[in-house]
Amino acid sequence: MPVCIVTGGSGALGSSVARALAKRGHTIVLADSPRSKERLAPLAKELGAKTCAVDLATADGWKEVMATAGEPSCAALVAGAWRGGIDEDAWAAMMTANVETVYRAFRALLPGMQARKQGSIVVVGSRNVERPWSGAPAYTASKCAAVGLAQAAAAEVLDDGVRINAVLPSTMDTPANRASMPKADFSKWVTTDSVAAAIAFLLSDDARDISGVVLPIYGRA
Prior knowledge:
- It contains seven helices and seven strands.
- The protein has 221 residues and is of the alpha/beta class.
- α1 crosses α7, α3 packs parallel to α4 and α4 runs parallel beside α5.
- The model has no long low-confidence stretch (mean pLDDT 97).
């Protein structure tokens, strides 16, 4: 069975993506931070998935992920974080969580995919990429950088048979978002299953002629 790496696998979106891909017949490797190890265990048992709890913003972390995955055919780069503001700590945190994790993933994944002349990667951005006035400057800049990196890399590896796309979710209906915005109209938010279905499609052979796309998934938010 094809192997797919899902980063941020312990989170609301990551777990939805992992389930969607497992239904499509993929063997799943759930990769997340060291503190996620206990949270990964139930999902790994449910899906028969392998797990890797490492620092995804480092080359050493990705060496362990690749040793676990072998020769993955695809990857959903869901891992990331949100933080408001533009102070030093926010900038460093957002660039590490949202850009460095994608860069290190590309460095680990692309050489093998290019050598095999096949592979597919999806990067999770944010609606803030197209609406930077939404606020959270450090977060927005980091997501813009991650999506720009995806588009530029997509152009470079296209002739090698490797596809890279990105999705831009608006506010997603997660327990954390409901808790932080209790007065919002949740019905307007995008479900994680909806975003996961789009990611699964872009990773699949059904999307074999699609690369370099940045797909908005806004719902009614």
